């Protein structure tokens, strides 16, 4: 790996480490999303606070950062002789940064929005297929984690047909799916025991007034 490629990977990881759930909540005077609900710093948990704007900004921020990390390598990488392999590595690095952010004690989110942003950077049709899957499942079962897991597992299947099995992005989609599923281990247990909450479930009032407990 060249020094330039390594620099792009570090930059992608640091971009991923910007947890918008925490940032937005602090700016809006809300409780830390890691202190209520599922404890996950992501848009779905922020929505439990009842603040739809905060949840939307979190979703947008986490998604855009995934796209930006990929786009930077796509745009600037060729100047330094970097191709799809570097793009794929940056895609994984920004997702790892989101899940284990250096700025927030390595306690990050589950990567769904960031993964979608990454997919938009890699291939538009691949991203749209994954989003359509999430939306379909969300409407049918109304469980965010199950929707995300279904979309993550099917993303490599879509990639197989859209970008081809020999594409670097196909391999990248497999690693992304593994990371997202890994971060949803606790959700899988709750799904199997029938304890998983649904989209829009509210947390207690402390999440809204900024006094969230543990």
Write a structural description:
It is built from eleven helices and no strands. Residues 205-214 have low confidence and may be disordered. Helix content is 68%, strand content 0%. It is mostly helical and 214 residues long. The chain has helices at 3-16, 20-27, 43-47, 52-76, 84-99, 112-122, 124-141, 144-162, 168-183, 185-193, 206-209. Helix 1 runs parallel beside helix 5 (84-99) and helix 4 (52-76) packs parallel to helix 6 (112-122). The relative contact order is 0.15. The protein is globular.
Helix content: 55-70%
Oligomer: single chain
Biggest sheet, open or closed, and with what strands and sense?
none
Number of strands: 0
Give a quick set of tags describing it.
single chain; 214 residues; globular; mainly alpha
Secondary-structure topology with pairs:
Blueprint: H1 3-16, H2 20-27, H3 43-47, H4 52-76, H5 84-99, H6 112-122, H7 124-141, H8 144-162, H9 168-183, H10 185-193, H11 206-209
Helix pairs in contact: 1-4, 1-5, 2-4, 4-5, 4-6, 5-6, 5-9, 6-7, 6-9, 7-8, 8-9
Quick overview of this protein structure:
It is built from eleven helices and no strands. The protein is mostly helical and 214 residues long.
């Amino acid at each position: 790996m060249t020094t330039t490629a390594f620099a792009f990977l570090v930059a992608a990881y640091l971009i991923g480490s910007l947890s918008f759930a925490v940032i937005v909540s602090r700016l809006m005077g809300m409780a830390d999303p890691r202190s209520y609900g599922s404890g996950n710093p992501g848009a779905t948990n922020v929505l439990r606070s009842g603040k739809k704007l905060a949840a939307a900004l979190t979703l947008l921020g986490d998604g855009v950062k995934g796209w930006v990390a990929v786009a930077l390598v796509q745009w600037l990488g060729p100047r330094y002789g970097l191709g799809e392999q570097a793009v794929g590595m940056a895609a994984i690095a920004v997702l790892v940064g989101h899940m284990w952010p250096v700025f927030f004690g390595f306690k990050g989110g589950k990567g769904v929005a960031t993964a979608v942003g990454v997919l938009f950077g890699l291939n538009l049709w691949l991203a749209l297929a994954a989003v359509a899957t999430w939306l379909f499942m969300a409407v049918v079962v109304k469980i965010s984690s199950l929707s995300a897991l279904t979309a993550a597992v099917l993303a490599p299947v879509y990639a197989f047909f859209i970008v081809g099995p020999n594409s670097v992005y196909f391999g990248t989609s497999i690693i992304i799916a593994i990371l997202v599923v890994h971060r949803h281990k606790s959700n899988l247990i709750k799904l199997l025991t029938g304890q998983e909450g649904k989209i829009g479930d509210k947390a207690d009032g402390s999440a809204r007034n900024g006094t969230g407990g543990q």
